[in-house]
Amino acid sequence: MSSSRQGSGDVSPGSRTALATVEELQARITELDPLIAAVCTPNPDALTDAARLDTERDDGRVRGPLHGVPVLVKDNVDTAGLPTTAGSLALADQPPPPDDAPLVRRLREAGCVVLGKTNLSEWANFRGSSSSSGWSAYGGLTRNPYALNRSAGGSSSGSGAAVAAGFADLAIGTETNGSIVCPAALNGVVGLKPTVGLVPQKGIVPISHSQDTAGPMTRTVSQAAALLTILTGGGTRYEEHCSGDDLTGVRIGVPRGPLWGYSTGLDQVSEEALQLLSQCGATLVDHLNLPSPGGDEDQLNVLSYELKVDLAAYLATRVDGGPRNLADLIAFNKAHADKELQWFGQELFERAEATEGLQSPVYVAARLSALRAGRDGIDNLLRDNQLDALVTPSYSPAWAIDLVNGDHVLGSSSSHAALAGYPLLSVPSGTVAGLPVGISFHGTGRSDATLIRLAHAFETARIKAHGPFPRPEFRQWV
Membrane-crossing residues (predicted)? Predict the structure, then answer.
C-alpha cells in the first residue's frame, strides 16, 4: 500500500480541492489506522472546514501556501472543541479546551485544516520509567507502519506514524528530549525540534518549560520549513533556506564517541550520509568529541521540579471539576490502576510531587549544571572548530514492542540539544533491515534556518542517489 501523495515538497493542494483531499485522507485513515492507531480523535468538522477554505480560495482569498492543507495535532496540544488528554483518562472525561493553543490558532489562520489529534506516549513518556513509547490509556498502542510489532518511538508516536502512513503530510509533535526526533527517525519522516521559545508553549500539556517545544513532523524538509514559518508567526520564512544541494563553504562537525557505535547497521547508513554531505561540497571535520551531557540525576531533577509547577499551571486553564495538580493525577491513577497502571507505574509523577518548588537549591543547581552541559558542549565544539553545525546518527532502529519491560533503546543523540534548548533536525537517511533510520543536524540557539538548509541539501542528494524513501507496507517485521 502507498499514499497517493508522494510528498515532493509542495505543501499546497494544487488543483485538488481541500475537500477532496480531506475526504481521501479520511478514507485512508479509516482503512489503515486500525493497524497502527495513530489518530486518536478525528475532527468531525474537518470536511466543513475544508469546504469553507475552498470557498475562500474560489473567491480569491488565499491565506498562504498552507491554505487548505490538512494537519494532524498531537493530543497534548489544546485544540478547541476536541479532547486534549495527554493520553490520560484523567483528562479524557473533561470538557475539551475552549480555546486553541496559539500554535493551533496560527495553523487555522494560515488556512490549515485540522484533521484530528494524534496519539502519544501517555504524559509524554514522563509518568513511569518503564513506559512503552506509543502507549496511552486513552489512545491505545501506536505501532510503526514499517513494522507493526516494532515501536513507533515516543512521545510523538502518533504524529510520526501518521505522516509515514500517508494520513497527512504535516503533523505537530512536541519534544522535551527526543520526542520529535525519535519517532521521526523510527518512522522515516522529517522531525524538527525548534529552538526552545520560537514556538509558543501556551496551551500545551507541559513537562519542562526549559526544554519543551512543539515542532513540525512532515514528509519532507521543505514542508517542515513551511510549517515552522507558520508556527513561529511568520517573521522568518524558513522555506527560503531550502535551495538545492550545494553546501560549498559549509563546515560540519562529526562527533563520534557515544553518539556512534551502538548499532552497526545505523553506523553504515550514517557513513554513507557523510559521503553524500561531502559530495554536496561540505567540509566534514571528523572524529570530534562531544562531552557527556552530565549526570542523569541533574537532568531528572530539572524535569521533576518543573513538571510539578508547570503541570499545575496548565491544569488551572482547564474547566473546574477536573484534576488541578499532580497529586490529583496520582490519586486518579491509583483509583483507576487497572487501566492507567496496567503496564507501568507512576514513580516519576511521585518523585515530582515530592519536590519543593523552583526556589529549591537542588533545582537551581541541577538546572545550571544541565544548561551548561548542553550549551557548552555544543557551542564549544562549534566555536573551537569553526563549524556551522554538527551531524550524528539520530536513533537506533525501531525496537520490538515490549509492554511488560518497556522500551529497549540502544542509543540516541538528542540529550545535548534538549538540555541546551537548541534546535535538532532529524531527516531520513536510509534503512537497516527494512527499518527506517535518520541522521540529525545539531546547532546553536536559533540556528534553525541553518539546519534546515543542511537537511534539505542532504535530502535532495539522497533522493538523487537512491530515489524516493521506501513507503511502509503495514506488515509484521520478522
Answer: none
